[in-house]
Amino acid sequence: MSQVEASVGSRTRINVLKKVKINGQWKLCSAVAESSGRLKDRVRVNGHTEIHPEGVYYIEWRENNQRRRQAVPNRNEVLEHARLKALELDARKAGIDVESPQPAPAPAPMAPRSNLVSMGTRPASMDATQLGRAAGVILQGIESYLRELVGAEVKAQLTALGIDTAKAPLEVHLALDSESVPKAAESAAPELPTPEAKANQSVEGKTDLSEAIDSYLKNVEPPQRERKTYEEYRLVLYKFRDTCGKKFLQEINRDDCLSFMRHLYSIGNEARTVFNRMGIVQQLLRLNGITGLLQGRDKPKFVSNVRKMYEPEELESLFKACTPDEKVLYLFFLLTGERDKEIRHTAWTDIDFARKCVRVTAKKQLGFKPKDKEEREIPVPSSLLTALKEYKARQAGSNPHNLVFPTAGGRPDRKFENKLKKIARRAGLNCGHCESKHGNKCSEGPHCSRWFLHKFRHTFATASLESGVSIRTLQEWLGHSDLASTMVYLKFVGRKDIHKLLDSSQMADLAAKSLGLAYADANGEIAEA
């Protein structure tokens, strides 16, 4: 992809710009063309290419030492406007009085325009070479004008007959007599597009699926998105490309989307995974102006799983099986609610012993930035700070990045979850029944699905709400960008006196009496049936 700076076949430079919204303000940015030469809403912002579907295109040129601009509302006409403007400026440089040509005139009777070119004002100094060059410019302008005029007239007649010309792009080819063009004009005039090039332009009205995918992935490459996220997008979009069978984006329809979802089910994806992966495909289509292919009933339906929490008895058994350093690590998970990657990149400078809090901050040298691009602060109990001080005193080995929980080589540790599963098995906490998608059995090794790092985060969130922490405060601690993500935990918060209320209800009394069991009386005391 390259910046659009020159008009086609002309010595006069015409810049193509687009006014887009950057950080809430409208700015003019250089347009960037695709490898095919088309414009697809790409602009260059601070040295980086971005997609901005909003805004209006402009062409820009210099005339009489002044910068001039002209808005072009229709994206498909921008390059043609630039080309015609270049021809106009070339003609004026050659000493010919030319009216500004228009790329899309309204349908009109096919008659030549008497004021298109005025030859009566040719300067006395114009020699044969200049005259030939001017003639070449004039011929190309006439050819372009007639092609557009004929095309508009024919399209109008076809539309009147009920024929949709949008589905079959109309190409008008005109042949000018090359014998009438002076030799000087042949060498100086811009090269006219060949029939083969025109045929390619009719195909260029559509977007190649593979090119669209590669372009989209280019914009989400790390560090723009996390490596794991990027790899998932690439896997899904390449899989869609390979199973779709369509060459152009505009050919994709509802059946293609439904077929892809059936394929995902056939390779073992669950409904939630199918929903998420189809969402990635829809993002690609939406960015290219394709929406509404799937209806509400088409989208996969799935059950929202209960957020699993660790019980106090489980955690007590786990910590008993930990070494002193392991205990500090997993207490840190439990008492901060941080994500795995955030704890991996926690440095000692993030621990504020005076204010009794820990912070999640970006680490540019390690390529880490907090999720949703926002740093935050989490208060922690004094017991954790005391444990951290003792842990720091015995920490040894290389630690160039001053990390709290580094590997032996001083890098972020990616094996926290594997270590957790080993401790759980060592403590006899495996359930003994589950099996991983790779065939690893819980009964045979450290593979129990009940033990995973994000479960500490669920436990922290639910326990905080049960302790009276407000939902807004918890949102800040967890680093959620929207409140809806935090409110998920509300339905798992139980009232501490709920079972006392249930046991003393009339229905519970009736059930206890009918079964001959003990029941709670009106004062909450246990009575015999």
What's the number of domains?
5
CATH arch. level architecture of the largest domain: Orthogonal Bundle
Query: How confident overall, as mean pLDDT?
Result: 79
The amount of helix comes to: 40-55%
Number of discrete helical segments: 18
Give the CATH level 1 class of the largest domain.
Mainly Alpha
CATH superfamily of the largest domain: Intergrase catalytic core
**Overall spatial form:** elongated
Q: Work out the radius of gyration.
A: 35 Å
Largest sheet: 7 strands, antiparallel
Question: Strand pairing plus helix content: what structural class?
Answer: alpha+beta
Number of DSSP-assigned strands: 14
List the helices and strands and how they pair.
Elements: E1 2-3, E2 15-22, E3 25-33, E4 39-45, E5 48-51, E6 56-63, E7 66-72, H1 78-93, E8 97-98, E9 117-118, H2 128-160, H3 183-188, H4 195-203, H5 209-219, H6 227-244, H7 254-266, H8 271-287, H9 312-320, H10 324-336, H11 340-344, E10 351-352, E11 357-360, E12 376-379, H12 382-394, H13 416-426, H14 454-466, H15 471-478, H16 483-487, H17 498-503, H18 506-515, E13 519-520, E14 526-527
Antiparallel strand pairs: 1-3, 2-3, 2-6, 3-4, 4-5, 6-7, 8-9, 10-11, 11-12, 13-14
Helix pairs in contact: 1-2, 5-6, 6-8, 7-8, 10-12, 10-14
